[in-house]
Amino acid sequence: MNTNLSKSVQYGFGLLSIAIISRWTSGNAVFTAPEAFLRYGFIGTVSFSAAGALAFLALIPIITRIRSSEESSSFPGIMASRLSEPALKWMKRVLLLAIFFGMTVMGFAAGILVFPLGTPVPVGMSLFFLFGFLAAIFFRLKWFTRFSMLKVGILFLIMIMILVHAYMLEGIEVVYNGIRLYHPYLLYAEWEILPLLLTAFTIAMLGHLLLDLKMWNMLLKSKREKLRLGLSMTGLIWSTIPFSFSMIALSAIYKGGFQNFYSVFEKIFLRYEHFTITILLIFILMVIFFETFLSQIHSLYVLYDRNDLKLNKHMWGILLLFVAAIPCLTYLFLISLLDLFFISGVFFAAALPVILQILWSRKKKGLLMPAAVLIGTLSGWTFLFFGEGPNSILIGCGSSLIALLIGWFAENREAVHHD
């Protein structure tokens, strides 16, 4: 991936919006929002969709400040200029964990996709990871990722087709009456939990955006004057994806109950008279997820050089982790995609204050930065074990912020003593 601004074509706001939406056409956009809808009701999907828009809008002042300094043309370069050598080494591991979480989400989404075909979700995950890593190891990635722009149009085409089939042919009133009969709680708006969900989702998503190398590459290659409009458009357009798939899930359960979240999407894909349509929809969505997964591996090669002997040595171990260990863990602990969002969201929330501190302050930072991420993540995960996911995200972010403040006071105190 070329990260040099001067040698690459700059994005206008239209191309920037399409490229970013293509990058974030992930399992969270397609499957996590509907699961949030089924767990928290209408407020769940509204807050999830709105949080995505707010996260993209929050990027505007951050990237504007970075672009005005022009100190580096890549995010790893920015970190290298503002972190000590040991701190940079550990923050690279933070970025590596962010990439791993992104890969896991895509594998989980692929497992849900093949569930209607009679394949267990963990098995689908393993097969997806196996093919994805083998493709990355033995083939060049550029030939596949060049179609990333096309997948945005295809995704919206699929969304519209499924929505039209579900609501226009069967009738909006019929679906509404069915939901009122079988699942009235989904239509009840618990406004009191909206601030909590909206804040937690926004913090987690913004942290994820700031830890994504491909995202930084696109933002640093864009025309400065187009950033504000491009990110605003991206947020508004992207927010329609999770909301639309939530409405698609709603149309699948109006005739009765459902066993679990997987069975909801099983009903969606198996409702068509011709099984060929089901296969085609699953195949197209699988290709879309596969391209996003390969972009994550591409980010891995940006973080660590593709020809790095250490990376090549550990690649088979990483393959084993994803093909065997992660699917087994999701099966043993009955983790859903929304649960995975909260687990990774705690990590991204803990990293958010640290990344903002690195970007905002031009002083060299030490090991306090990765230590704050660790403290926030462990605090949030501990709370997640006993409490609710949205609260754990706030705990993770707050703990990381407190660690940074304590470190800042300690540094100032030491400086005063030296004076």
From TrEMBL:
Q: Sorted alphabetically, which keywords does the UniProt record give?
A: Membrane, Transmembrane, Transmembrane helix
Is Transmembrane there in the keyword field? yes
Q: For this UniProt entry, which segments traverse the membrane?
A: 12-31, 37-60, 94-115, 121-141, 148-168, 188-211, 231-254, 274-294, 315-334, 340-360, 367-386, 392-410
Is DNA repair among the key words of this record?
Answer: no
Superkingdom, taxonomy of origin: Bacteria
Name the UniProt record assigns to this protein: Transport protein
